[in-house]
Amino acid sequence: MSRSESNDGRRASGRQGGKFRKKSFSRGNAPIKKQNSGTPAPISNLVRLNKYVANSGVCSRREADVLIAAGNVTVNGKPITEMGYKVKLEDEVRFDGKLLNPVKREYVLLNKPKGFTATGRSNISQRSAQSLVAKASKSELKPVGKIGKEATGLVLFTNDGEMSKRLNSPKNGLRKIFHIELEKPLRSADLKRIQEGLAVDSKVVKVQDVSFVDNAPKNQVGMEIYSSRNNIVQRIFDTLGYEVVKMDRVVYAGLTKKDLPRGHWRYLTEQEIANLRMIN
């Protein structure tokens, strides 16, 4: 695992004009606009049926046209196949019998700084990760999964409860890569123990890859892991008698820190959202 991968976005928040900028994470930084699709405008009283279905998180608008044409969408109990049909927000719209909610599903990726909590509870306090993405949406966005207050790196926020539940399911085991710094060098024998599978609380933890970071001291380790157990990376090193000084999540479910400085957020691209929807 290269050192450059673990340092994605770090240079962008450092030196500017020969001086270091003072960070102000507590106020929340502006989003990265390069991939920013924009906060959607409120839905009017009348909305095209395909947009209503797409906003409900079922599929894209183009795919919604196919579902409507096939008669899979009903409005107030009646199948609608007319392209361009408009519905009211108070109408009952169903897809394959499931009631739809027209609230726009939104997905925001944050590169979390150290010292900010990221919990599923409603929390917009000054030192919460939620406060950093508060301007990303008019809807309440909640983090997917957990990450420690002192850890840094990628956190996904969304108002898509169905996707969040699916991604949080232990059976999915999302791919995560961490850059870890220990208070002392990691012994080769302990590195091997992790590679072979280490028992944590009487249950063996399997990691996909663990190695020393290229061109770095032996107290810096990269780890790829799919386990969804709480604080499992921290607990692995606790079991071996090492103190974790820094832990940075540089990859999460295929999402990376590229062009995303610490303390900033961005909207996911349509392709990234589609990739997450493929996780069952």
From TrEMBL:
<dbReference type="InterPro" id="IPR042092">
    <property type="entry name" value="PsdUridine_s_RsuA/RluB/E/F_cat"/>
</dbReference>
<feature type="region of interest" description="Disordered">
    <location>
        <begin position="1"/>
        <end position="43"/>
    </location>
</feature>
<feature type="compositionally biased region" description="Basic and acidic residues">
    <location>
        <begin position="1"/>
        <end position="11"/>
    </location>
</feature>
<dbReference type="InterPro" id="IPR006145">
    <property type="entry name" value="PsdUridine_synth_RsuA/RluA"/>
</dbReference>
<keyword id="KW-0413">Isomerase</keyword>
<dbReference type="InterPro" id="IPR050343">
    <property type="entry name" value="RsuA_PseudoU_synthase"/>
</dbReference>
<dbReference type="InterPro" id="IPR002942">
    <property type="entry name" value="S4_RNA-bd"/>
</dbReference>
<protein>
    <submittedName>
        <fullName>Pseudouridine synthase</fullName>
        <ecNumber>5.4.99.-</ecNumber>
    </submittedName>
</protein>
<keyword id="KW-0694">RNA-binding</keyword>
<dbReference type="InterPro" id="IPR036986">
    <property type="entry name" value="S4_RNA-bd_sf"/>
</dbReference>
<dbReference type="Pfam" id="PF01479">
    <property type="entry name" value="S4"/>
</dbReference>
<dbReference type="InterPro" id="IPR020103">
    <property type="entry name" value="PsdUridine_synth_cat_dom_sf"/>
</dbReference>
<feature type="domain" description="RNA-binding S4">
    <location>
        <begin position="47"/>
        <end position="108"/>
    </location>
</feature>
<dbReference type="InterPro" id="IPR020094">
    <property type="entry name" value="TruA/RsuA/RluB/E/F_N"/>
</dbReference>
<dbReference type="GO" id="GO:0016853">
    <property type="term" value="F:isomerase activity"/>
</dbReference>
<dbReference type="Pfam" id="PF00849">
    <property type="entry name" value="PseudoU_synth_2"/>
</dbReference>
